[in-house]
Amino acid sequence: MSRFNTNTNYPLIPNANEYMIQQQIVSIHSEDRDIVKWINPSEFEIELPCDYVNVSTVKLGSYTFPANYNTFSLARANLALTFQITKPYNPSDYGYFDPILNAIFAALDSKLDQDFLIVISEGFYTPVQMATELMNKMNEVVNQLVLASLSADPVLTQQFLDEGGYNQFVVVYNQVSQTIWFGNKSSGFEMTNDSMFYNLKTELLRGQCQNRNQYPSVANWGLPSYLGFTRCPTPSVVNEIPTKYPRFYYGDAVVAGDKGFWLAPDTDNNYRNKHVYYLEPPAKINLMGDAYFYMEITGLNNIDETLPFAINDTTLTSNMTLGVHNSAFAKIGVMTTPISQWFDVNTEAVKIFNPPAERIRKLRIKIRYHNGQLVDFGKFDYSFNLIFNLLVPQSLRYNVVFDPASQNMNGGGSGFIKR
Length: 419
Fold this sequence. Notes:
By secondary structure, the chain is of the alpha+beta class.
């Protein structure tokens, strides 16, 4: 006992160099952030209830996230599609004169080999909904062109509207091949997937101040990539045999009883041709969006992440690979489609500190996709647990216990043993 200071009522107690692991679970809710400072729930700072000291590990426990994301949105720059009319239907080629059809031909011929641009609505689509949206948008943009050309003749304009306007585009979903087919009842067309619109990264839609921190995506570069197209233009083909029209042989395609015939010439409005134009994208559609996202927590990140390949000075002048060291804390799979909520506890996310972290009180959290874009949760909240393992030092203790079998304690025969 000579090493203790006997002149104080608070003697120093030596550390036994033994520690007890104390587990503390912290439940974090996105709605508890400072909403004035952190408007987006995908990125915020939050102060923990107390100081957590001597932290040996931090593990992601259970979590719950809403599946209300938009696969197609302005932020993702995948709302736009361009096409051209390459061979407009001309009624004079069939020895026929009709003022409406002549007006349609004149309008289309004035925009020959020029891009039509359509923009779909933001949201999450089923394949059938996507096909319907594309068909209506393509017909509408041509319809607006024809109406502009007929603006000087109100009588002809009303007649054009009474006949249903321009409705020659037909877009359907093949449930067997899982592809979306595009067709036109009278005019040849081409999907211009190499349009300058995509090469300019669709700044027209998403704005110059958005997505600056996103990495370029080779796979999902725009709406055509989700529909199964490559960056090459895809022209339509014409049915070589006048009476042989495209058909899905697995059953009805559009309406009950059509026996799979989804595209045929329009004879109701005096179209006197027997040729139709259609095309199929080279790949299946992908309407599901990202299958996972990353959780970043400053000071806890320990996942190394690869980056999309890019041709730059680094890749051209060295053999270094692209990637980020300690880029994220957890990688979380998106297990459901909108609209739903999912809960899970299976995760590999754990941060080990050696030596233990002295103190953790504040965390900065960021939820993003692989390309750097923040996950858009909208007004929906999410929550997750962090499991802190704390090392609590133990004091060196001496206990005196009675042992009847012993006859000695410090030279005596009292039967006490010092431990």
